Every structure is written in structure tokens, then in C-alpha cells.
């Protein structure tokens, strides 16, 4: 009875603090890596509506406003995404000198590149003249030339040429290089850190402990390394808040027998187990032994690692795939899937096509679930829910980490 009363109280508070969502015209999200605006009162109330101190068996989930409110997303961008290491890509995107790729997180436009000497760099992808974006997509360049007025930068960020500035006063081109971002690699992943003063020297030496904590060795020992070449990328725009996709991943396999019949038939779901670490949760499951001549995508066991706040690493059989969830607005996200495969199978096109087809089926099933959950979260009928204590401990861990970031520094 006390639990029910607690849930009712949170439900009432959450309804009072959340605006009615609209899907017709999503608001453009904005965040700054250099200055953080005070959180809106409604966003503060939404943070406070979740109590991480309540034990899992008695806890209620965060209120639906966490998944629908644009001000809450702005707070997340400031307090979560633009602080600490964030996965932004993989090393195969910048394997060679002059390789580059671009991305966006909140309102931060960035470019990752490898210069002619093989040094890895990251910069804000913004010309210092009149703010045009410099590069788009990915590929190879020996320099970045602004498409607007031709200002040109080296891949080390140095301003090489500023066009038609004769007569300009109080100008030193050394002061107008690209603004750097801290960058590092761990295993096959490229990470960026948007929030701190720039100091590149020790980034690679500390990134594992800072990003993964005590889970770093565990992941390394389970085949999450640089040995698997990248073979394929898929991107999905999903009509759900970014956390809906994360929650779906973190339910301890709860939804698998109901939503993924084909996948469930290849897993021993009774073997599912979950462990949580500082910023990582790891789910493990054994696979059903395949017949000798059968197509075997899953191998004998699978490990599903969630790295807070939005990165998932899935290692199974000869495969590794990763899922990077990028918020677009309060009710939409982009999910980037990258697939890596054991070198011995990279020429087996039938195996690759069959594996990717099976993976695509799972993604379509998950996308349908996430879209349905988002619509339910926007309904006036729902405010808070409950956790299944035996399986949803990783989801609760995720919500507690979010609360810790969002409630600090007020």
C-alpha cells in the first residue's frame, strides 16, 4: 500500500510539472559546451520526481516527462552529453592519414581527423571567420577549406590561409585556428570530450578508467578489441526519446520472448544475467548450440555491454556490433549501428548478408516497440511505472546515473 501511495504521489507531481507534448513541430535542441544555463524549474521538478535511494523492488520509474519535455533534454545535453567521454565513432573511420568524419551532438558540430603524420585530432567543425561548417560527411582531405569564403585550415587545426583580409587590423592568424576538442581511442572506438580545458597529452592513458571504470578489463577480455575489421553501417531515425531505446536495451532480455521470436529461439534465456559497474552494465546470455551445418550468427554466448550514457557494444560469435544513440529532439533519436566481423569471414558474403538480415529483423521489431512506448509516454494515461526487480536492474542503474548527473551543481 505504501508503494502504491508513493507511485500515486509521483504521478501527481509529474503530471503537474510536465507540458503536454506535441509531435507536429519538434523544438530544435541546443546545448553549449562552454556555458550552461540554469535548468528550468519544470526540468528540476522532473529530476526530483525520481528517487534513486528507493530500493529497486519498491522503486517507481522516472516520470514520463523525462521522455517528452524539451527543457529536460536540454538539461541532459548540458549535464550528461557535454560532460565526460562520449563515443563518437570507430578507428576504421580514421585509419589512414587525411581521413576524417564529422558529427553533431546537441548544437556541437565536430570533425575528427588524422593528419599527414598520423596524429588524431578533433575540432569544432566551424570556421572562425563567419561560422560556416567546414566539412561534411566523411572521407579524405589534406586541408579543410571553408565553402563560404575560402578560409583554409590544416588537419592540425592551424589557419593556413585567410582570404581577402588586406587592411584588417588587430588580427593574428595564430589566434584563429580551429577550436580543439579532446579526443582519444579505446580499443576500436573513438571518443571525444567536450567539456574540459584542452590537454591532449594524457588522454589515451586515462580514457579507459574514466570511460569504463572497472569494466575496462572485463570488456577487453571478452573480445572487444581492434581485431575485428568494420564491414557495415546502418542508421535509423526513430520516433522516440533517446532513453526509450536505451531502456529497451537494458531490460535484461525481458522483452525478447515476446518481441523477438526468432532471436529468442537461438538464446538460452534462462542463462541471462546482469552485472553493473560504475558507468557500465553488462548482460550475458548463452546461445543454443547450432547444428553442425547450420548458419550460426550468435556463437555460444553473447555479451551486451551498455556504456553510459548512450553506447552499446554487442559481442556474439564472430560478430561485434555497436549502437550509438544520438538525441535529435525530445521525441526523436538517431541510432547508428556499426558491424565488425572476424577477419576469417569477411569474404563470406552469404554469411554476412544472412547475418545482417537477421539483425535487421531484430532492429525493426525493436523500433516498433520503441515507437509504441513513446506514444504511450505521451498519453495522459501514463506517468510512472515499475521495475521488474529480477531483470531490470541495469535499467534502474541507468536511471540512477542520469539522476546523479542531472541533479548536481544547482
From TrEMBL:
Pathway: Amine and polyamine biosynthesis; betaine biosynthesis via choline pathway; betaine aldehyde from choline (monooxygenase route): step 1/1. Residues 1-36 are annotated as: Disordered. Residues 85-192 form the Rieske domain. It catalyses: choline + 2 reduced [2Fe-2S]-[ferredoxin] + O2 + 2 H(+) = betaine aldehyde hydrate + 2 oxidized [2Fe-2S]-[ferredoxin] + H2O. Keywords: 2Fe-2S, Iron, Iron-sulfur, Metal-binding, Oxidoreductase, Transit peptide. Its EC number is 1.14.15.7. It comes from the Eukaryota. One of its GO terms (cellular component) is chloroplast stroma. Belongs to the choline monooxygenase family. PANTHER family: CHOLINE MONOOXYGENASE, CHLOROPLASTIC. Catalyzes the first step of the osmoprotectant glycine betaine synthesis. This is Choline monooxygenase, chloroplastic. The gene is LOC127775396.
Amino acid at each position: 500500500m505504501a508503494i502504491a501511495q508513493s507511485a500515486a504521489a509521483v504521478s501527481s507531481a509529474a503530471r503537474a510539472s510536465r507540458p503536454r507534448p506535441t509531435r507536429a513541430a519538434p523544438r530544435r535542441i541546443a546545448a553549449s559546451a562552454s556555458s550552461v544555463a540554469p535548468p528550468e524549474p519544470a526540468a528540476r521538478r522532473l529530476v526530483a520526481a525520481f528517487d534513486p535511494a528507493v530500493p529497486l523492488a519498491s522503486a517507481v520509474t522516472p516520470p514520463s516527462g523525462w521522455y517528452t519535455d524539451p527543457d529536460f533534454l536540454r538539461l541532459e545535453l548540458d549535464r550528461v552529453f557535454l560532460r565526460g567521454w562520449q563515443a563518437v565513432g570507430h578507428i576504421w573511420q580514421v585509419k589512414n592519414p587525411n581521413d576524417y568524419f564529422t558529427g553533431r551532438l546537441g548544437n556541437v558540430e565536430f570533425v575528427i581527423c588524422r593528419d599527414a603524420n598520423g596524429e588524431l585530432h578533433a575540432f569544432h567543425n566551424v570556421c572562425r571567420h563567419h561560422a560556416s561548417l567546414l566539412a561534411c560527411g566523411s572521407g579524405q582531405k589534406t586541408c579543410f577549406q571553408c565553402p563560404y569564403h575560402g578560409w583554409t585550415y590544416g588537419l592540425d587545426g592551424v589557419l593556413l590561409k585567410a582570404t581577402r583580409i588586406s587592411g584588417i587590423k588587430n588580427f593574428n592568424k595564430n589566434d584563429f585556428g580551429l577550436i580543439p576538442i579532446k579526443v582519444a581511442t579505446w580499443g576500436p572506438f573513438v571518443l571525444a570530450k567536450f567539456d574540459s580545458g584542452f590537454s591532449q597529452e594524457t588522454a589515451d592513458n586515462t580514457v579507459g578508467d574514466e570511460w569504463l571504470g572497472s569494466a575496462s578489463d572485463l570488456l577487453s577480455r571478452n573480445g572487444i578489441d581492434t581485431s575485428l575489421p568494420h564491414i557495415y553501417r546502418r542508421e535509423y531515425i526513430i520516433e522516440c526519446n533517446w532513453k526509450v531505446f536505451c531502456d529497451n536495451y537494458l531490460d535484461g532480455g525481458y522483452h525478447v520472448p515476446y518481441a523477438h521470436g526468432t532471436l529468442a529461439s537461438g538464446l538460452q534465456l534462462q542463462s541471462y544475467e546482469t552485472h553493473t559497474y560504475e558507468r557500465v552494465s553488462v548482460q550475458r546470455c548463452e546461445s543454443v548450440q547450432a547444428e553442425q551445418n547450420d548458419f550460426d550468427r550468435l556463437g555460444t554466448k553473447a555479451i551486451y555491454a551498455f556504456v553510459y550514457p548512450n553506447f552499446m557494444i554487442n559481442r556474439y560469435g564472430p560478430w561485434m556490433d555497436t549502437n550509438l544513440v544520438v538525441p535529435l529532439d525530445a521525441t526523436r533519436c538517431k541510432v547508428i549501428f556499426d558491424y565488425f566481423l572476424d577477419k576469417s569471414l569477411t569474404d563470406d558474403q552469404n554469411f554476412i548478408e544472412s547475418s545482417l538480415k537477421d539483425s535487421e529483423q531484430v532492429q525493426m521489431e525493436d523500433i516498433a516497440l520503441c515507437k509504441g512506448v513513446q506514444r504511450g509516454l505521451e498519453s495522459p494515461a501514463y506517468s510512472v511505472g515499475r521495475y521488474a526487480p529480477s531483470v531490470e536492474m541495469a535499467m534502474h542503474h541507468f536511471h540512477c546515473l542520469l539522476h546523479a548527473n542531472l541533479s548536481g551543481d544547482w
